[in-house]
Each structure stands twice: as C-alpha cells, then as structure tokens.
C-alpha cells in the first residue's frame, strides 16, 4: 500500500556571517535616518547630511549606497523580506494551508506592526511615499524593491503550488502588486497602521481580488474552511 506524501519543508537558509549581519544593521540604520530626513524635508536632503546624521563618514555612506535615494531601500525592503521569509517557511502537501491562505497570512503579518520600531518604519514609509511624487529617483527605488521581491517570490510559489511557470509568474505579480498598492493606498490617507483600513487589511482585500482567477492557489484542499478569516470567503 503506497504511503501518503509527506509535506514539503522549505530549505533552511544559511545564517549570515557576523560581518554580513553588522553590515545589514548599519545599512538599515542609515536607511532609517535617510527615510526620516526625506519624509521631513523632501528631496533637498543631501548624501552628506544623511551620512552625518547617521554618524558615518561620507566615504562609508558611498561604500554602502550609490545614491542618496538608494539609502532608503533597506527600510522599504524590511516588510518585503519578512513576507517572503514567512511564506518560504510554509510547507506544502496534505494538511498544510493552501498557498492562497499562506500568502494572505504572510502578507498580513508583514504589514501588521508588532512593536514600536515596526510601527515607526511604516510611518517613515508613509512619509517617503508622500515625498515620491516630487522625486522620481525615490519612486524608482520603491519600484525596484518590489520588482526584486516579485523575483524572489516566484521560486517560493513554484514550490508551494507546483503550478506551471506562467501561473507562478501571474501569482507572484498579483501578490506583489497587492502588497505595493495596499501600502500606497494606506500611505495616501491618515488611517492608523493597525486599524480596519490599515495596510494589513488592504493587502488581503487586494490579494483576493487579484488572485481570484488563479485556482491553483487553492491547492488540493483548504483545511481552513469557508468561514475562516484567512480564507477567501472570510471577512
């Protein structure tokens, strides 16, 4: 008698070295400073001002970033990395949540501020997005971050769904667009990040709308049931 297939576990990523972790921490600290300055003063901020406010030499700044606008990329990518990391940890197979449910849960967690630093990062992101109409270079960084996240999302969805490449690409584009639009829509208003009109709720609405025509995301079974808040029929 054949045995049932075991759920597919995600590969365990290699832990970054101490040097790599310190570099990432420094880049993120510079990114926070740059975001605060851009949000407060607009595109007139200089790389030298960002470096001085961050407590690093201008030479160090340019070792990490090519332009002053590039400096905000690590901050903008924080939520994206969390989302893809959570999704990559999901398993596939009988008894596992469907890819659709896994996508929604990961996106909701990424855009729900769990502590003050996370809430502050969302506030800075809101300020940056409001500054972007007058600064094309900042908007280019925002779109580049999301383009890169879409590329990273594709192999994760391929593993979870087992779908053909076109479906995987469509699903990645839809999910990534839902995340981007949710943050942009929230940033354009004044709603709190953790309320019913916060980015976490908006991303689920957007994801359900944009992936409704992709039944491959439902998987062989959805143990959540039609009434669960994480399922497409939930609230």
Outline the structure in words.
The protein has about 240 residues and is mainly α. The protein has a domain at about 75-215: Tetracycline Repressor, domain 2. It has helices at about 20-40, 45-55, 60-65, 75-90, 100-110, 115-130, 135-160, 165-190, 200-210. It is globular. The protein starts with 17 loop residues before the first helix and ends in a 25-residue tail after the last helix.
Task: Write a brief caption for the model.
The protein is mainly alpha-helical. The protein has helices at 18-41, 47-54, 58-64, 73-88, 99-110, 116-131, 136-161, 165-188, 199-210. It contains nine helices and no strands.
How many angstroms separate the termini? 42 Å
In the CATH hierarchy, what is the class of the domain at 75-216? Mainly Alpha
Q: Helical region count? A: 9
Classify the oligomer: single chain
CATH topology of the domain at 75-216: Tetracycline Repressor, domain 2
The biggest sheet amounts to:
none
Question: Strand percentage, roughly?
Answer: under 5%
* CATH structural architecture of the domain at 75-216: Orthogonal Bundle
Q: Report helical residue fraction.
A: 55-70%
